[in-house]
């Protein structure tokens, strides 16, 4: 059972799924050129090439699917530059199936009757095949860099093999919480919801926590934020106590899964701003003025006492 569970973990499935598209994308190029060059058995070879690219489209789609699941398991403690590499890899990898599908369609057209359709489609298919191979190579290279240079996902392969080793450290405890720093009293007065907080929420949280899609039962868009409640952790924000607020605990990785789920963690400055804002009361409007405007009470007259003269 345990062996099966290991193979079914998203990172391992993704590792298995990515090699088929790589192989097919490179096998396809010679097939296209042979298809174009030969006269006998032309339809057979072209049919085979269509099948190759259709298989590539399917397997690239599977790799994309397993990749998305693998990403959602990545530790938020990965450094920012590694997350950037994850995004770049994803940008290329998630489009491989489209390239493959276009090439499949062009190769299928090259089987049609009118000669001019055949030859036009064949020429375009050669270009599409080369583009597919290059695009897939870049996606594969970025993915390879993640695994072999940065060790992303490797823990899943190494950890099960170390079960029984005398470490005694349960999996997951090696995760580092996002660091926090002291809040200065002066910061409490200068934090502004519209300027410092709303953009961070919109960028990092609202996609998954809104009225239509309230993941974890948490809607951070509609009601006042101090009232927002999740299914598991209850009220997310405790005004005045950022570090006891589930909102902050999920972002730091103290509660799992770390937020924003499966994405690059927010920056240390953004985390700090959120903590300052909660500490200052988690207000969504401008803070109430500390003292009423001066016009209501004229300043007390200043009395200067000079030696020798009586005060007025
Ligand atoms: C990609 C989608 C996604 C993004 C982006 C995201 N979340 Fe979540 N969030 C989830 C899911 C899914 C859950 C439920 C997780 C569970 O309990 O298994 C969740 C749960 C939570 C909970 C706990 C709710 C409860 O059960 O009480 C909090 C708090 C939370 N998210 C805060 C945030 C914050 C703050 C951000 C932005 C920094 C954020 N999330 C961004 C998907 C997301």
Keywords:
55% helix; binds heme C; mainly alpha; 312 residues; 2 domains
Q: Please outline the major beta sheet.
A: 2 strands, antiparallel
Helix % is: 40-55%
pLDDT < 50 runs, ≥5 residues: 160-174, 291-305
Arithmetic mean of pLDDT: 85
Cα radius of gyration in angstroms: 30 Å
Q: What molecules are bound to this protein? A: heme C
Count of alpha and pi helical runs: 12
Describe the global form: elongated
Structural class: mainly alpha
Q: N-to-C terminal Cα separation, in Å?
A: 95 Å
Strand order of the largest sheet: 1-2
User: DSSP strand (E) fraction?
Assistant: under 5%
Please tally the β strands and state the result.
Answer: 2
How many domains make up the coordinates? Answer: 2
Précis, in short:
This protein has 312 residues and is mainly α.
